Amino acid sequence: MSATTIFGVCAAALVGLGLYGLICHRGVLRKIIAFNVMGSGVFLLFGVIARRGGLVVAGAGPTADPVPQAIVITGLVVAFAATVLAVALLLRLAQATGQTTLDTPAPPPAPTGDR
């Protein structure tokens, strides 16, 4: 098994774990972390694609394709900014409602028939 295959399998595992956490957890902070794990898998997958798509230069060995590397670097910056925005919104949600889940609060009980 080559290193490219191992990195590809790890990228798929990260995407799978992130997707599982995104679907199964109710807490918003856990969803944010799961989304970041899934994004890390996608960035690793782009790294593998960059390695596979590189040129072979005589005397220098294989080189990586610079376009996917530039996409990964841009994606890292955007992912960091999105994470900061999501955490800020989560803090605002916690201040406004006192809870950190997206569940709707239970309606108040209906009044009884006492007159």
Automatic annotation (TrEMBL):
Pfam families: Oxidored_q2 (PF00420). One of its GO terms (cellular component) is plasma membrane. The chain crosses the membrane at residues 6-25, 32-50, 70-91. It comes from Candidatus Thiodictyon syntrophicum. This is Na+/H+ antiporter subunit C. Its main location: membrane. PANTHER family: ANTIPORTER SUBUNIT MNHC2-RELATED (PTHR34583:SF2). Keywords: Cell membrane, Membrane, Transmembrane, Transmembrane helix. Belongs to the CPA3 antiporters (TC 2.A.63) subunit C family. The keyword Repeat does not apply. It is a multi-pass membrane protein. It is found in: Cell membrane.
